[in-house]
Design a protein that fits this description.
The structure is a homodimer. Chain A is about 35% helix and about 15% strand. Chain A has about 375 residues and is α/β, with parallel strands linked by helices. Chain A is elongated. Chain A binds a DNA duplex (30 and 30 nucleotides) through helix 2 and helix 4.
DNA sequence: AAGCTATATGTAATCGATTACAAGCAGCCT
DNA sequence: AGGCTGCTTGTAATCGATTACATATAGCTT
């Protein structure tokens, strides 16, 4: 038996389960063949196998073929951990997502995954809103031994988490997408939220609305702030009233949209149109109104923000500001990968702003005769 | 300077950027301190540092404190790659998701992430429907050097991908969730799809419907098949007609629901109720009908499947079969982790079936006077 | 023929932890 | 005193690849 010649007793091959070592003891197969085993099977050194795999052009054709044949026959699969240790990188990126259950992020993730996987990176996701995701826990994800880079979709994380530039254990490159931490020195991919909000307001104005309300996101969120600011600016620019009671607090959720609808119903003087800072809130708003016997856009016009999948199939189809969600994720991944390639040289943070557009559908229409 | 006493020239500390080696050459800081550096700072061996970190009770209190202080002062963070290599595991699980953009999966993912992260596992996601995710590419994710286990949410993957039991490079433990490959020998977490479908049909029957149609998922999908089968069985059991033209083909998407609506409209004899195999199709169905001037449940009752977030806020609120999405993900993760802990001993595959329940809302009501 | 270059390959150090094994030491028992 | 036990700690092997450096060979130039 050829196997008996093998002096190293943990030689492994693809099909057999057991071998006999030099003492003829039946030993369990190590199971996973190593580069060593391939080298032996091909009659070359491990260095040559390694080169044949990662830089085929430097080995002769004959050797290359022998190596590939040995890989096939042994069923060898590279051990990524060992490679990563030696190369001091992980070929992985971590994505910090606030609330994975929110469908808004699923397309962003899809965009990230697409670009990252094509470039050979694994995508590791972490939900920052889970109870176990406390600061200490999250901190461990920011280690360069975990990932070569980070994409952060949560602007509500404590800045302190990221304040480690230049210190030991250095922070890997970070790119923010969608949300970001105001004033932080990181690259970001974002949309022009203020401009999007302004588009919504101008659209309503163009339809004839003069009394326009707004349902905003959670306090302290950059998206809330920028959309709110865009809303106010556009209202002011158009000479429309900015009335405190027409601004409703939400948190981007369906539920909070429904609550805003109740608040709207409770008003003496109601705005004839409402711009919601998220589609989910817009749907919740319209849905609640419908339960109370009101109809959109007959009784009030509604514009959303995001253009989630359901928007065009809502009743009525939702007029909204479309965010290129997939493209945002893809751009963030590309930016991060570029940044990782640039080495440790602290490149200045870049900001990429993607265009939004208004998807005019049926939930916004000219104000009814009852309106002012 | 104390630094000049250090003979190993790549000593590193937390704050300074540069050191001088034994030749007094200014060298770049290695940046990330290693366990070696901690050991030196604490005046102990690396073995002791390692023990203090991973099994604190075996080192004396004095030493432990010294080590922790050294960790703090050096800013040491463990290198997971090195640890994983030595321990021959990755502390990561891979989740194979069909179409990340589908919000249905986001809650499943959230459940997985929650359990996995609490147990110290990273979650790596792969979108199996991306163009780059060909069989060869996916194969590399099934390597045990990539992850300690796999959760597969895509039942349409080729079985061949998983047929490596006992061969070299062995497949790590696999758990299917939601979908699965018929006849494959893996553990699964699923719901009783047939029972769920039967609940929907019986609910409609209870409301008085005698003519019930069905919009099914993509052909060949196990969910499609089991729900279809449950539908047929319930119809037969109740003595209701099973008419070929009342069964519409869909693919779970909003769009396909809308198409089914057009098909329904084109019928001479229309069923008074339609059970859709997904909420997305139900929404698309209702939405399309609404565009054509029809109203649910006045003109037709609709029941969905899944209970996605928007369901209760749809117009009308959608009657649907609720799947515990978060719990499915959590159960899959728990099962996988248990399986990984059980070692390589091939435990028999287990099947966990989670209960579904009917969420009766407004989209299904007794048939109108016009109906038979 | 000597010397040089280019190509292909092998040897062994290296990445940074964990852990088997050995050993030191204090306390206790006989 | 000698031996035993239990508690700490250190030494060095190990995980499985990559890669710097050395070396061998062939082909070419002068």
């Amino acid at each position: 038996m050829i196997w008996d010649d093998i002096s190293v007793n943990h030689f492994s091959a693809s099909i057999k389960y057991f071998f006999r070592d030099s003492n003829n003891i039946r030993t369990l197969d190590r199971k996973t063949p190593r580069i060593q085993d391939v080298a032996r099977a091909a009659g070359v050194s491990t260095a040559t196998v390694s080169r044949a795999i990662s830089n085929p052009s430097v080995v002769s054709e004959a050797t290359r073929n022998a190596v590939f044949e040995a890989i096939r026959s042994t069923g060898y699969q590279i051990n990524l951990t060992a490679r990563n240790l030696r190369q001091r990188r992980t070929r992985a990126i971590v994505v910090l997502v606030p609330n994975l259950g929110n469908p808004f992020f699923s397309h962003i993730l899809a965009g990230i995954e697409q670009v990252a996987a094509s470039a050979g990176f694994s995508v590791l996701i972490v939900d920052t809103k889970q109870p176990h995701a406390n600061e200490g826990q999250l901190f461990t994800y920011l280690s360069s031994s975990r990932a070569d880079g980070l994409i952060v979709l949560d602007g509500s994380l404590p800045v302190a988490l990221f304040e480690r530039r230049g210190t030991a254990g250095g922070l890997p490159p970070v790119v923010f997408a969608c949300e970001w931490i105001a004033g932080s020195p990181f690259s970001k991919v974002m949309i022009d939220n203020a401009a999007g909000a302004a588009m919504a307001i101008r659209h309503l104005h163009g339809l004839g609305h003069r009394c326009i309300g707004h349902v905003s996101g959670p306090r302290g969120n950059v998206l809330t702030d920028t959309r709110l600011q865009g809303t106010r600016a556009a209202l002011a620019e158009l000479g429309l009233p900015v009335r405190r009671e027409w601004f409703f607090d939400g948190d981007f959720s369906l539920q909070s949209g429904a609550e805003a609808a109740r608040a709207w119903l409770a008003l003496d003087e109601r705005p004839t149109a409402v711009f919601c800072a998220s589609d989910q809130m817009a749907c919740g708003f319209i849905s609640q109104l419908s339960m109370e016997g009101y109809t959109v856009p007959r009784d009030v016009s509604v514009v959303g923000f995001d253009d989630i999948d359901i928007a065009r199939h809502f009743i009525p189809p939702l007029t909204t500001v479309r965010q290129p969600r997939n493209a945002i994720g893809a751009a963030a991944a590309r930016l991060l990968i570029a940044q990782m390639g640039a080495g440790t040289a602290d490149a200045p943070p870049v900001e990429e702003v993607l265009a939004v557009e208004l998807a005019a559908r049926r939930s916004a229409a000219p104000p009814g005769p009852a309106a002012g």
